[in-house]
Prior knowledge:
By secondary structure, the chain is an alpha+beta fold. Helices cover 20% and strands 29% of the residues.
Amino acid sequence: MQRLTYLYLLLFLVLFLSACTNKTYKIQGNSILISNTEGIKLRLIPYGNKMIRVQYAQFDEEFFPNDHYEMVASHDFDGGLTIKETKNTYEVGMVGQENLQLFIDKENLTLDYHYLGQSILREKPGSIDNADDLIRSFVSDPNEHFTGLGHSYYGREASIDLKGKKHARNYGSDSHEQAPLIVPFFMSSKGYGIFLNSTFENYFNFGEDGAYEFGIKTSGFEGQMDYFFILGPSLKEVLQEYVSLTGKPRLPQKSIFGLQLSDKGHDHNSATPSNETWWRGKIQAHKAAGFPLDHIVNDNRWRAGGGKRCESFIEWDRGRYPNPTDYKKWTDEQGLSMTIDFNRCIGQFSEGWKPEFNIPVTDGINFKESAPDLTNAEFRNWFWNIFYKKSLDPTLKYPGDALWIDEFDEMGKAPKDMVLANGRSSAEMRNYWFFLIAKALVKDGWDKQIGVEKRPYVWVRGMTAGAQRYATLWSGDIYPTYEDMKFQIRSMQLAGLSGFPFWGHDAGGFYDWDKNTGPDEQLYQQWAMAMGAFSPIWKPHGMGASRWPLDRSKESQAVARKYSDLRYGLMPYTYSNAYLAHEKGVPMVQPMILDYGDNEQAWNRDLQYLWGENMLITPNISNSNFVDVWLPKGGWYNYWNDEYHEKEEQLSFKIVDNAYPIFIKAGAIIPTIAPSTSIASANNSELMIHVYAGANGSFTLYEDDGISEKYQTNEELRRTLMQYDNTLKKLTIEKANGNFEGASISRDYTIVFHGIKKALEVKVNGQAATSIFDEGAHTLTIGLGNMSIKENITVLIY
């Protein structure tokens, strides 16, 4: 009997120990670690209550540390997970997010994400994990739409809807594959997003041959599958969560949002090579003719050593610019900021360059004597310091407010198996190049040595996810054709959907090498001026005929004035939306899918977009005088004549007098100022507020000093909330919240109500006030006079 009892106890102990040994999940802090019999480890970590980090590793390897990549700005998120075990699954929930559940198959560790009780992303068994590929496969839904992923070379994207095709966002393999926006982050119409946290070559399939999968190709080097699942459920919420994860886009100086013009085409071999005298004369003539200008872009000619693209070096040429300090003083007086540029090919000629800065194998690379290894900390330190020493040091008082970094996208022929200075392979680091450039110049350079007094603006020909917190990009040497114009409209939207709202391009196209020409007058008007004025960065630039309005035809000059007045008059609205893009990640250029994605039309209408949240822009992308426009439900006003469209409608808009389609959403509040020839000279103390009746609306006017980082470091900023109640016909302007150096304490307001069909009485703060009714335009205008910004204002019409 005792022996039998002993055997029972022994059996119980064996079963108990076996159960303990076979337990396949652990709670580690706020994370959950799950393993299976095939030696795969799965780690789940909450980032807040809308994001789950999903990591895989082999049983005998460690997970990559958080700082292995720096695309994620911070891993310091609160959050908690719960887990419940059933016979075949683990059920994981998020603390504070009861509508999201994750079901994990015990046998194969496949994941099934549920929101509101419905599966929105379900993994298929058999995902590939081998020496060269780490790929996750999911059940495909032919009705699911996808967007994001940055853009491929030159921003040439056929659609912002990525459904049904394979995509990759990687550093090029050829020297002519310019300006990739490498953002392995996408969003789904089902209300979630995925960020693939790896710099290895990526791959996405959103329905081709019925597959839905994403992954990385490690080329035999050590890599790990690491991604973030991000819940919205709206696309704007997904995007906001992504930006909270990878970092806020760096807000440029306010002058960057004005017109930018360059000296391209006035090189050493032109009839009118640029120098300080050329610039002064050009700027004075341009402004005397009434055209605005805020930012001047130097292309090579500022540099010493001849000012040639690949023979000069980083230093102000004292022959063409005898006294950079005096020149800087003069440009400041004109209200101008300035870009100075760097071509990779001049590295070898610049002071302090070392051949050992180069990557180990340079064969096949253009300008291989200047092919730096961006993982080399000594090179990165040199790179910033050559700019600082030669121009940006504040004690020099030289020009330099922005940096243009060119041709770092042309090293794609370097072998992927090459081991770089940080001990990692080129296969892993090439997608990371642009991040390392941005970090070196801004976080490790500008922020430390120039500090809060002046914001940086760095634009590189190519960018990487997460680097938006330091820099941005432009789309390379695009063609002046309608086809490339269409590509740029789409890539501008995709950039905003990928965390880069301050994306730029050469408005009008850079050059047509086949025809040896820049944009003709028609394309200059439609693209360089009209569409350019409704781009985040307005930079007409390129080879061939001058992009300066004063050098174009009389008709082009008239179009330039029309859209310059629009751009500069809308600056309070535009700059407020720029701040929103920085703060929330909501892009300045908003694709139709952000607000109207539940309508299938929106996914097809990627050649029109919202400027901010209230202005619908449809560029003319052909030589026709008619433009196809889709107006979603909600009510829209024709900007040019206030004609109202109440229902969803598709119309053929006839262009008259170069007035391209612009519509204003019912309920919109649009603050404007009088157009000026520079942002610095604008009169912000007189504000005209346009209110478009037909729906409730609100708008927050944002203001700061436009130059420093004090809006972040010291909260030196001001917000003014404006709200319109359509039922009561009442506009409320709340007292301004906050302050900054140079802010006015009062403001002269004029209110214009649109969509008013008869003369109405007006009360301002309860007192009767006079107004002007325009029967033809259906507008009611009220001049409030000078009002304190420290008091609430109500305007009631009845």
